[in-house]
Amino acid sequence: MYKVMLADDEGIVIDSLTYIIRQNFDGECQVESAKTGRSVIELAESFRPDIAFMDIQMPGINGIEAMKEIKKNNPNLIFIVMSAYDKFDYAQEAINLGVLEYLHKPVNQKKIVEVLKKAMDIVDNRREKRSRDLETKEKLEIVVPMLEQGFIMAGLLQAQDRPGLENYKSLLGIRKSHMFTLVLEFGDEKNEQGVTNPVGAGVRLQGSYQQVRSIIKEYYACYVGPLMNNRLVCCVPTDMKQGDYESRARDVERCRRMMEQISDACGLTCRVGVGSILPVDKLEKSYEDASKALGNSDASVAHCRDLPIFCEYEEDYPLNLEEQLFDCVRAGKGKEARNAAEAFFDWMAETQTDYMPNIRLKVLEFVLFMEYVAYKSGGMVYRFRDRSEYLDVVRTGSLEEMRRWFLKKAEESAANVSEKKKEYSHEIIEKAREYISRNYKKDLSLESMSREMDMSPYYFSKLFKEVTGTNFVEYVTSIRIRRAKELLREGKNSMKQICQEIGYGDPNYFSRIFKKWTGQTPTEFKEGNEE
Question: Residue 401 is inside which H or E element, if any?
Answer without folding.
Answer: helix 399-439
